[in-house]
Specification:
By secondary structure, the protein is an alpha/beta fold. Helix content is about 30%, strand content about 20%. It contains ten helices and twelve strands. The chain has a five-stranded parallel beta sheet, with helices on both faces. It has a five-stranded antiparallel beta sheet with strand order 6-5-4-3-7, with helices on one face. A hairpin with a 6-residue loop joins strand 11 and strand 12. Helix 2 packs antiparallel against helix 3, helix 2 packs antiparallel against helix 9 and helix 5 runs antiparallel to helix 6. The radius of gyration is 22 Å and the shape is globular.
């Protein structure tokens, strides 16, 4: 993170752009390559002075003491849970309702929510059977946006704290609350993640869809709504039977979430140490959150992960955690 800009570089930058370089980043012995390095220090997702920003900085620098200080001050946008088990009541409340001891939302900041919110929106605002297609497109867009406000992220795929176990358990909680009709197969409200490119359907790995009821010949039929990838806001409706490479999306891996952001993110760490639990993974998970972050740490491994970095194996092109 240190700058090694030559005074001549700083003078040129100020003349060309009006940007003044902090004197602490100047170095009379800076190398030529140093003059072409830029450190992006400003986040447009969250304030660096927020709890999320401070925790992300502490993790990125590998400083457990700094992270402990963040938690000690208990900023209103951060919550850390140490559940007693995978069926912990507080964890269930968090996932369904976003319920956690967060501070009050600031001006223009939406409240922290869980998955109940998008499912109630789906149920309560669905147009009537005889409504125009445009009304269903608008409704589906709103429900997709509501779903994207909250996301569970996992460090691993398998085990009780991994994607597979949590997807099953969360579906069971939602069914138990009467928010979805079943936990098997295709049903209204099921969110899905495309796991392999399908060029025939125009779907790419990482695309998100939502199974909804759509009128067809005077009756309700399940269709999966996807937002167009071109940013136009248009929707595509596909038969579930055409989607072969998808997973349910109540929980997803941190790896799959890269490039995404969510108003409220629940980062769930495993209960055992493993090679995937690294500083980089935790930092990526934390920085998916825009307004609210819940860290679920059943074995209190956050600080362990902060001190383990991914290293690139020289000459092999592979990665290992050290």
């Amino acid at each position: 993170e240190d700058g090694h800009y030559l005074p001549a570089t700083a003078a040129w930058l100020q003349e060309a752009s009006g940007e003044r370089i902090d004197p602490a980043l100047l170095d009379d012995d800076g190398h030529a390559l140093d003059q072409a390095i830029v450190m992006l220090r400003h986040s447009h997702r969250f304030d660096a002075a927020s709890g999320i920003g401070e925790l992300a900085s502490a993790v990125n620098r590998g400083m457990p003491a700094a992270s402990r200080e963040v938690w000690r001050r208990a900023p209103g946008d951060l919550v850390r849970l140490a559940p007693r088990g995978p069926d912990d009541a507080a964890l269930k409340r968090l996932v369904l309702d976003g319920a956690a001891p967060f501070g009050p939302a600031g001006p223009g900041v939406p409240a922290a929510v869980g998955y109940r919110r998008y499912l109630e929106r789906m149920r309560d605002t669905r147009p009537p059977l005889d409504a125009a297609r445009a009304a269903f497109d608008a409704w589906a867009t709103q429900v997709l946006d509501e779903h994207a406000r909250f996301q569970v992220l996992c460090a691993v795929r398998t085990g009780p704290w991994g994607v597979e176990g949590l997807n099953q358990r969360i579906a069971g909680w939602l069914a138990g609350a009467g928010l979805i009709a079943t936990t098997q197969g295709w049903y209204a409200g099921r969110p899905v993640l495309v796991t392999r490119n399908d060029y025939d359907l125009g779907l790419m790995n990482g695309d998100v869809g939502l199974c909804l009821m759509l009128p067809h010949e005077g009756a309700w039929q399940l269709r999966v709504a996807f937002s167009a990838a071109d940013g136009s806001g248009a929707l595509r409706w596909l038969l579930p039977s055409r989607l072969q490479e998808v997973d349910s999306l109540y929980a997803m891996t941190v790896h799959k979430s890269q490039g995404s952001e969510f108003s409220h993110t629940a980062l769930i760490l495993p209960d055992t140490r493993g090679p995937l639990l690294t500083r980089e993974l935790v930092y990526t998970g934390i920085t998916r959150a825009r307004h609210w972050l819940s860290v679920v740490d059943p074995a209190e491994l956050l600080e362990v992960a902060m001190q383990r970095r991914v290293q690139r194996a020289s000459g092999l092109g592979g990665l290992y955690a050290g």
